[in-house]
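ok so for the tutorial part 2 we go from a plain amino acid sequence to predicted structure tokens. step 1 is just haveing the sequence, like this:
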Amino acid sequence: MSAPPFVLLYTREAEKVVEGLRSKQQYAPKLKKVRKALRLLEQAGPRHPGLHSHDYQSVLGPGGVTLWESYVENKTPSAWRIWWIYGPDDGQLTIVTIGPHP
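step 2 — the prediction. this is what the tokens look like for a chain of 102 residues:
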């Protein structure tokens, strides 16, 4: 694990979520929150206190690696999260998916 800034990589699934949010004006407030959380991940790193990043113990990430969860929203019904993994290289985070907390 390296120190910020991080390079963010996106799975196709994560790209689809962002594209979907961009596609309709009604999703603009959610897109703004997602972009802010992604910017914090990239510039400040997962340890930023507003992200509340922690390992997501219910599911493993691709290839069995630790999957991490960071907050987009908090104290909101169906609050959105960003699920990500470290890597593949040092200084990179791969955004696996983005969506409402299950």
